[in-house]
Design a protein that fits this description.
- It is globular and about 65 Å long.
- Strands 5, 6, 7, 8, 9, 10, 11, 12, 13 and 14 form a ten-stranded mixed beta sheet that branches. Strands 1-2 form a two-stranded antiparallel sheet. Strands 3-4 form a two-stranded antiparallel sheet.
- It contains twelve helices and 14 strands.
- The chain is an alpha/beta fold and 505 residues long.
- Helices cover 24% and strands 16% of the residues.
- This is Carboxylesterase type B domain-containing protein.
- Belongs to the type-B carboxylesterase/lipase family.
- Keywords: Glycoprotein, Signal.
- InterPro entries: AB_hydrolase_fold, CarbesteraseB, Carboxylesterase_B_CS, Neuroligin/BSAL.
Length: 505
């Protein structure tokens, strides 16, 4: 007869075998990954797995995953780009309309933008009366033909909504705008182009401008479908043009309004401004564009390794692109207005006096910002250098020398690591900004001229006093009563001490 404790061991062993076989079956049923997605491969920004070290030419870090269609680059959904999740990942299947996902989990690209089907986020609600209307429009620019599409605006934005009681339900077409989205105004600032001025884009035969280009890398807390930024990529230098119905002849050119998004030079995107509405109802050509942000746009070591100003140089190139092509969109190149909030207002003021663009800018509308604000430009070389060193330490790069810092950021960190890195609170609210040109020899690389690096070499106030702007300039500025309210409401320490009500404003 076996001892009692042996019987107990046998019972426990049988129970363990039964439990393991049961849980193994459950794992196979509920966590099986489809073909094309390997479960155990960790990726750079996967919050569900470990982060691997940087490996040169690793597709997790390069841009080989960017979708090319007839010469037009399309980044993947920000979920796949930003967190390293790849097409076919069961967690993100079906969230990006520019990619189709089959049951095997293999991504097969479909036609981009509106070419793949009606896009309510671009074209508005679908109506029976728009089904037979003209969709595609074409414009010949300096760089080649651009294909856009018509947007029809109605007095009732939502055809399925209940109308006001007592009113007859009548939908009237109020206007038509022609939209051209995601036009590249510069070559992608990737690989060797990182931490260098923008270069003009090469020409093309047909550019299908039917969807917004990706936003520039920025902290993840500013991105997401609810915030209007679903696509992020280092290849982000795209602009959008909205003009009154391009198919109608016009006896005169429309004024041009260029919107520069705000965001403290850290976040923002061109697709968050509804330019088609302004173009339709105010008969102006509206242009919005992306520019490099954060360290990718404004890192300055105060020497030849990274002089800085890449983001503001992007803006200057976009403005010059509009000046060269405005008339092809029925715009008046001699009536160009820059406007925007916060950092956009400061940028408009800087472009107003910058030698590259001062002759182009005829009007400025500065909303809650100014080029002479203390945060709009960095004049202290040591402050710029210190900011770069703090950032380098924050992201794990050597700060022994500026060359080592820049080399690390260029070759050992992805654009999304750089964009998502944030400063500790003690650094301040506005760590990044354009810098005044310092007494350094600008670098000379193949493909870049020395003049490409120059922006502003003098104090903005001095340039204004010298009248270094368009002599026909008109300038409008505005502020709100509580400009800093956002800093209070977002601060956990200060917010409880304030009551945000009507009296506050």
């Amino acid at each position: 007869m076996a001892p009692p404790y042996r019987k107990q061991y046998k019972i426990i062993l049988l129970l363990l075998i039964f439990c393991l076989s049961d849980t193994g079956g459950q794992y196979d049923e509920y966590t099986r990954y489809s073909n094309g997605y390997q479960q155990n491969i960790p990726n750079s920004y996967d919050e569900f797995g470990p982060r691997p070290p940087y490996i040169p030419n690793n597709p997790e870090y390069d841009h080989s995953s960017t979708y090319l269609y007839k010469g037009r680059r399309y980044g993947q959904n920000y979920n796949s780009n930003y967190y390293g999740q790849r097409p076919g990942d069961p967690r993100i299947r079906g969230q990006d309309e520019r990619f189709s996902y089959d049951r095997a989990g293999i991504a097969e690209p479909i036609l981009p933008g509106i070419l793949g089907g009606w896009r309510e986020d671009l074209q508005g609600k679908k109506r029976d009366q728009t089904r037979e209307k003209l969709r595609d429009v074409f414009v010949d620019t300096v760089y080649g033909t651009v294909q856009g599409f018509q947007v029809y605006l109605f007095d009732n934005p939502d055809p399925e909504s209940l109308y006001r009681p007592g009113s007859e339900f009548i939908e009237r077409q109020q206007g038509i705008a022609s939209a051209f989205l995601g036009i590249p105004y510069a070559q992608p600032p990737v690989f060797e182009g990182r931490f260098k001025p923008p270069r003009l884009h090469k020409s093309w035969q047909l550019m299908q401008a039917v969807d917004f280009g990706p936003a520039c890398p920025q902290p993840a807390r500013y991105t997401g479908a609810t915030l209007g930024i679903r696509d992020v990529d280092e290849d982000c230098l795209y602009l959008n043009v909205f003009t009154p119905d391009i198919t109608e002849g016009t006896g005169h050119k429309y004024p041009v309004m260029i919107y520069i998004h705000g965001g403290d030079f850290i976040h923002g995107a061109s697709n968050t401004f509804p330019g088609h509405i302004m173009a339709t109802f105010y008969k102006v050509v509206v242009v919005t564009f992306n520019y490099r942000l954060g360290a990718l746009g404004f890192l300055s070591t105060g020497d030849v390794n990274s002089p800085g100003n890449y983001g503001i140089l992007d803006q200057a190139m976009a403005v010059k692109w509009v000046y060269d092509n405005a008339e092809h969109f029925n715009g008046d190149r001699d009536s160009i207005t820059l406007f925007g909030p916060g950092a956009g207002a400061a940028s408009a003021g800087l472009l107003m006096v910058a030698p590259q663009t001062s002759h182009i800018v005829t009007k400025v509308i500065a909303q809650s910002g100014s080029a002479v604000a203390d945060w709009a430009m960095i004049f202290d070389r040591y402050r710029a250098q210190n900011t770069s060193r703090v950032f380098g330490r924050q992201i794990g790069c050597s700060i022994e020398s500026s060359w080592k810092l820049v080399n690390c950021l260029k070759n050992s960190r992805s654009a999304f690591e750089i964009g998502n890195a944030e400063f500790p609170p003690e650094v301040g609210l506005f760590p990044w900004a354009p810098v005044i040109e310092m007494n350094v020899t600008v670098p000379d690389y193949e493909g870049w001229d020395r003049k490409d690096w120059h922006f502003i070499s003098d104090n903005v106030e001095t340039l204004i006093k010298k009248r270094s702007f368009n002599q026909g300039l008109r300038y409008m500025s505005s502020v709100t009563l509580q400009e800093a309210a956002g800093f209070i409401t977002s601060n956990k320490t200060l917010e409880p001490n304030f009551r945000i009500n009507q009296d506050f404003f």
